Every structure is written in structure tokens, then in C-alpha cells.
């Protein structure tokens, strides 16, 4: 049955299009020929994919397979980043670090733990509640230990292989955003209000000036995703399950390799 608004597929296509602008600026900003508004438009991309990942987690037939695809995507990016950087080194030694899959995977891990915790509370199983709370704290604790032992041989590989809030793209803010989308999934108005408040809270209040909000710290511009979230009609839309899994690394590596000819 057709519903007004945008399907998940349509919203993803919009995000993919805007992501190209964002990454063109990311990889070619050193040329001073890419306008800053390219990356302004890109601020809406990560929140949209976080939102759609939560939707996917809720509606997927197999959460294990869903989480497995995200983790495999993360591993492929880790290996791809290393190999592409080695084969096509940039003259300015810029590192290839992009990997949103790790963030999305970690969000699904937290959502799984939250569901386990909620079930334990509902059934009044103290041990389940304790394990659930420990599960929420564990990724943070592991991340802190990693930060304290960066000098240990092989630790950098562990950081990439075991996603933690401190080391994934977007950090704790993006993880919290995924949890927010999940907890408010049945309360659309509250969801949009809280999302707007989070976006506003990210404004550089200590340096509140045109320079500060438009050039120094413009992550608050993710509020631009608000209309797309509001227009989501709850329908999946067309298939193409693996479009994002293929397009994301492919366009990043194409842009990165092209940038090596200018650096």
C-alpha cells in the first residue's frame, strides 16, 4: 500500500548523493578549490544512515546476519584502507580512515544489549539486568583501556578490529544518536524534537560567531536531516540490499585514488 512521504530506499539514495559531495570535499579540500558547502550538505548523511540502520535492525528477519554484514563491511574497510593507502600513497601523507560501518555495527551491538536489558527488567531477572548494564559499560571500558595502551604493539590493529565508542567514526555522539532513534521509534514527534535538540547542542556555544558556527564547528548542520526523517513513511521501498555496502567503499576509494594525483 502506497503511503505519502519517502521510503527508506528513497532516503538512502538522497543520503548517497549528498555523501559524494561530502567526500569530494574531504579528499580534495587541500586543493582549496572545493567549496565548503560541499561538506555542509554532507552533515545530514551519517544521521540518515544511522536512522535507517536502526530501522533495519528493528525490521530485519535475522539480526545476526544483519549485524554480521555490518561487521564484515567494517573489516573490508579496515583492510581496504590499509591496502589502498599502501598502493596509492598521497604526497601529503593523509591517512585513509573513513569507516562508518564500524559505527553502525557498534550501534546494533548497543541496541541488542538494550533489548536484553529491557527483557531482564521486565522479567525481573537480576542477573540479566546486571549483565545488561555491564554490556553497556564494557565497550567504553575496552575503549579506555585501548587509549591507555596505544603504545602496545598490535594495539592499533585491535582498535580497528574491535569497534568501541571512542574510536569509531562520529564517536559517542553517533552511538547515542542511534540509541535515541531506537528508544523513540514509536514516538515520532518526540524523536524529531530530541534530534533537533541534539543538533543544536552541538553548536560551538563557547565560540558562537559566524566563524565558529559555519567554519570551525558545523556538525550542528546535521539538523538538516530533520525533514527527511520527518518524511519517512515507514516503508522499505525498493530492494537493492547491498547498494550501500558496495557504493560506500567504492566511491571512497575512487575519490581517494584520484586525490593522490593532485596531492
UniProtKB/TrEMBL annotation:
Key words of the record: Membrane, Transmembrane, Transmembrane helix
Pfam family, one: TraX
Record keyword Transmembrane helix present: yes
Transmembrane segments: 9-28, 34-58, 70-88, 94-114, 126-148, 154-183, 190-206, 218-235, 242-262
Signal sequence interval, chain numbering: none
Protein name listed in UniProt: Conjugal transfer protein TraX
Top-level taxonomy: Bacteria, Bacillati, Bacillota, Tissierellia, Tissierellales
Amino acid at each position: 500500500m502506497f503511503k505519502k512521504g519517502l521510503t527508506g530506499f528513497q532516503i538512502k539514495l538522497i543520503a548517497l548523493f549528498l555523501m559524494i559531495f561530502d567526500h569530494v570535499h574531504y579528499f580534495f579540500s587541500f586543493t582549496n578549490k572545493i567549496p565548503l558547502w560541499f561538506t555542509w550538505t554532507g552533515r545530514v548523511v551519517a544521521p540518515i544512515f544511522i536512522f535507517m540502520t536502526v530501522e533495519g535492525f528493528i525490521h530485519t528477519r535475522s539480526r545476526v546476519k544483519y549485524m554480521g554484514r555490518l561487521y564484515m563491511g567494517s573489516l573490508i574497510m579496515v583492510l581496504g584502507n590499509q591496502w589502498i593507502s599502501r598502493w596509492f600513497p598521497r604526497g601529503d601523507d593523509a591517512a585513509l580512515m573513513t569507516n562508518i560501518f564500524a559505527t553502525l555495527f557498534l550501534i546494533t551491538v548497543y541496541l541488542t544489549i538494550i533489548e536484553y536489558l529491557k527483557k531482564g527488567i521486565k522479567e525481573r531477572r537480576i542477573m540479566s539486568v546486571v549483565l545488561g548494564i555491564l554490556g553497556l559499560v564494557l565497550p567504553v571500558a575496552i575503549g579506555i583501556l585501548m587509549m591507555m595502551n596505544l603504545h602496545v604493539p598490535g594495539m592499533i590493529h585491535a582498535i580497528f578490529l574491535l569497534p568501541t565508542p571512542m574510536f569509531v567514526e562520529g564517536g559517542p555522539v553517533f552511538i547515542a544518536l542511534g540509541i535515541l532513534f531506537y528508544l523513540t521509534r514509536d514516538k515520532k514527534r518526540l524523536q524529531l524534537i530530541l534530534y533537533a535538540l541534539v543538533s543544536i547542542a552541538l553548536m560551538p556555544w563557547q565560540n558562537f560567531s559566524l566563524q565558529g558556527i559555519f567554519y570551525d564547528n558545523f556538525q550542528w548542520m546535521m539538523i538538516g536531516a530533520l525533514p527527511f526523517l520527518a518524511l519517512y513513511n515507514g516503508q522499505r521501498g525498493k530492494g537493492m540490499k547491498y547498494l550501500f555496502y558496495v557504493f560506500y567503499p567504492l566511491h571512497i576509494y575512487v575519490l581517494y585514488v584520484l586525490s593522490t594525483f593532485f596531492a
